[in-house]
Write a structure and sequence with these properties.
single chain; 185 residues; 9 helices
Length: 185
């Protein structure tokens, strides 16, 4: 028999697991409409504003989707039980919009974007800052590791090096913006 407070914890974990499954199923479904959902500068400027949000949830191909999916799973395992519903809503609603608006304003040469990596960088920055002071110093190490990775990518980018993933350019600027957004929020 479980004590009442143990039932609350079990329900909370069960709800989070159900939420994760529903998120993944919806996320898989979105991949079939990627062309209508990805960040496309010209279409956004012509009024298709949903692309500011949806572009982060679609991917160029299934390898790209799988890599972002593995990162989501890793973050879920690392932060399970620590995120509140408000944290998840922040991650899924605010982070994509702010990152997209920043790309639209500060990177006018960027014609298109898709993928979750910018949002994932925001989530890591946000969670590590939040938990470094309340849970464990290991989150502080995670925060500095995130920023070391992002700054190395930017340095390499400005030296002319570009990242490719199965023939697709990796938009390292989204990683930087995500880290900034997560850190500041």
């Amino acid at each position: 028999m479980l004590w009442p407070e143990e039932r609350v914890v079990l329900l909370s974990k069960r709800a989070k697991n159900i939420g994760l499954v529903l998120f993944v199923l919806c996320w898989i479904g979105l991949q079939y409409g990627a062309a209508a959902l990805e960040f496309d500068r010209q279409r956004i400027l012509s009024g298709q504003l949903w692309r500011l949000w949806t572009g982060h949830f679609v991917h160029s191909h299934w390898l790209h989707f799988s890599l972002n999916g593995a990162a989501v799973l890793a973050l879920y395992v690392i932060f399970i039980g620590r995120f509140r519903v408000s944290d998840v809503l922040l991650s899924m609603l605010l982070f994509p919009l702010v990152i997209s608006c920043t790309l639209l304003i500060f990177y006018p040469y960027l014609a298109w974007y898709n993928g979750l990596s910018g949002v994932l960088h925001a989530v890591v920055g946000y969670a590590c800052i939040r938990f470094a002071f309340t849970r464990s110093g290991w989150y502080g190490l995670g925060f500095f590791s995130l920023w070391g990775k992002v700054l190395l990518e930017l340095l390499q980018h400005y030296q002319g090096y570009s990242y490719e993933l199965a023939g697709m350019m990796v938009i390292t600027q989204a990683h930087f913006i995500g880290a900034v957004v997560g850190t500041l929020i």
